Amino acid sequence: MKTLFKNARLIDPEAETDALGWLLVEGGTILAIGTGQPPAADNVIDCARKCLAPGIVDIGVKVCEPGERHKESFGSAGAAAAAGGVTTMVTRPDTQPAIDTPEVLEFVTRRAREASPVRIKPMAALTKGREGREMVEIGFLQDAGAVAFTDGDQVVENNKVLSRAMTYARSLGALVIAHPQDPGLSAGASATSGKFASLRGLPAVSPMAERMALDRDLALVEMTGVKYHADQITTARALPALERAKGNGRDVTAGVSIHHLTLNELDVGDYRTFFKVKPPLRAETDRVALVEAVASGLIDVICSMHTPQDEESKRLPYEEAAAGAVALETLLPAALRLVHADAIALPRLWRALSLNPARRLGLDTGRLATGAPADLVLFDPDAPFVLDRFTLRSKSLNTPFDGARMQGRVLGTWVAGKHIFEGG
């Protein structure tokens, strides 16, 4: 059966165009795209001049299976992703136990297939137990479906262990994803050092901790030649090192979380723990520099860094509260703040949300092109609403955007041409 999306604002991140047209889907793939008179189809969807774009590919989603299913399951995360226009979740291995063997990875893959309406691409740990002592069986895990290898925010401190893992990953063409934060400097920190942290009496970490760790990682990348992705760049001081590495031809990319693009350290206010994330929120000058880096293409990927935490772990003194925020449903409207502020155009934004992450992982999604999978999101970029966290589909409701005025509602989400979510 052919499905026609007509009268749509087509957001094409590959061509970087934003134009009125139509899109024809058949058998789970995009059959044709054009302007002018649309062809006949069995099913016609009038998009009413709303935006039709590739579904979001979100790197770094934490689904708490196995081990902490009460925080988030594949079912609840999949429902939240569909409602947020996310059609591919790239999941983290920082579970209990860590995803560090083919058996655990196969369990996760099976659970995802059974419960989630969106695509799941799992990452595996880089070292056993994420303990930084012994690398995992990268080849076996790659064969079992791991798309990348990372210890998440548990930084591998031993340079010899990390260099060996990178060398082995390089021989297999595997992608290593790292969290550039010096673990010694950042241990116990819950804010960025500066006047605000001092006034609030919060344990803080210097932005230099990120630059130092990134410099270390990039030196090892130069030594090993591995494919490398920094999961979150959050400070202006780290950007020159990233720019040099790219200019020198290293196979390096970088991401940033939506919270570091749209919030700053002052949002913590009077110790509001829903704003406690890792790394901590930065200065406004850092936030502005990151937005400019995304607009220029220096930072490649925008991600949700979806990290569910239950109420008990957040209702604690700020320095003791767990770090992290849910963001699968808020990623799109929060990212549209950058568009409404004229900081970035929609097609360039969608390069960072969809095209670039798909390319980095070798996926064929993230494009509006003939033959590409029909993973699509239809959204109204201007629809205003006030976010109520109790309407979110995640099991955990720890969002910093609770009560915030936002713009941008998902009207529909499709995976392989199948309609998996319809919004109001």
From TrEMBL:
Source lineage: Bacteria, Pseudomonadati, Pseudomonadota, Alphaproteobacteria, Rhodobacterales
Superkingdom of origin organism: Bacteria
Gene3D superfamilies from the UniProt entry: Metal-dependent hydrolases, Urease, subunit C, domain 1
Coiled coil (residue ranges): none
Keyword Lyase part of the UniProt annotation: no
GO biological process: purine nucleobase catabolic process; pyrimidine nucleotide biosynthetic process
GO CC annotations on file: cytoplasm
Residue ranges occupied by any Dihydroorotase catalytic domain in the UniProt entry: 50-235
Keywords for the protein's UniProt record, in alphabetical order: Pyrimidine biosynthesis
PANTHER family cross-referenced by the UniProt entry: ALLANTOINASE (PTHR43668:SF2)
Protein name in the entry: Dihydroorotase
InterPro entries associated with the record: DHOase, DHOase/Allantoinase_Hydrolase, DHOase_cat, Metal-dep_hydrolase_composite, Metal_Hydrolase
Alphabetized GO MF terms: allantoinase activity; dihydroorotase activity; metal ion binding
